[in-house]
Amino acid sequence: MRQKVLAIQMDELHTLNLETDSTMFLAYEGQRQGYLVFSYHPRDLVYESNTFMVKGHFLHLEADGFSFSIKASEVFNLEDADLILIRQDPPFDGRYLANTYLLEILEKRGKRILNSPAGIRSACEKTLPLMFPDLICPTLITEDIEKIAEFSKTHGEVILKPLYGYGGHDVLPLYQPGCGVLDTIVKFYLDRYEAPVIVQPILKEVYENEKRIHLLNGKPVSIFRRVPKDGEVRVNMAQGGSVTSCEFSERDREICERIGPMLRDWGLYLVGIDVIGDYLMEINVTSPTGLRAAQKLHNINIAKMFFDA
Fold this sequence. Notes:
Radius of gyration: 20 Å
Number of strands: 16
Structural class: alpha+beta
Number of helices: 8
Strand content: 25-35%
């Protein structure tokens, strides 16, 4: 009998922190459940003559789950994969967009791809919460510097984020309303990301009540609190944030219940949302992290739940 193949579209292997990486956590569980694991980078996807070929490596995850060995590079036909995971980090740029168009063709042929490339393409992580205006904090998305200055005067200390950024990269606090560096900051965002800026108040709850919630098929399965390091407002673990245990509040469950049907409809199977206080901040659909943290804090193996389902 042919062994099942799990193909994972992911970042370069040498860039991963194996102690915390959620993609390799999923890969290990896939291997444990009988899959051969093939990894490839999105730039190595080639469409030619009605085939979708990728150059990459078959992996073997060691028993500790934190190390691996690789076989020699080879070319693999994605149509021979039994399951494809999209797990590379944003930013969601032109290359990422083109990749979703190609993978959507495979999806329409019946290939199981998680999360759905069409769903990912429709779900900008920082704008998707706007579909639920009663769940979000005051939000401005614009390229207009005067609008940003006006918003900061109204709300005091604000945070500026690139619309297509990730992991807390290039997230900047603006503590002085209308400060003179605003022109430089906005120009940096527009030049680097070629997209509008998202601006929100710095919520005091970010220091004590910022939560990551994981959902599988629209249902919440884990929650933990993220705490920024001293002198920071960014809670991302990539920026030095730490995690502690917490329980679901009624508001957390309300948020999950509201967004769950949309996630299922769009094929967004594994999702991580960020909640600060009572506000939904982001819906992370490309490569949500924190799976190892959920296991460490609450002994919840989301990777096992993922493949069991």
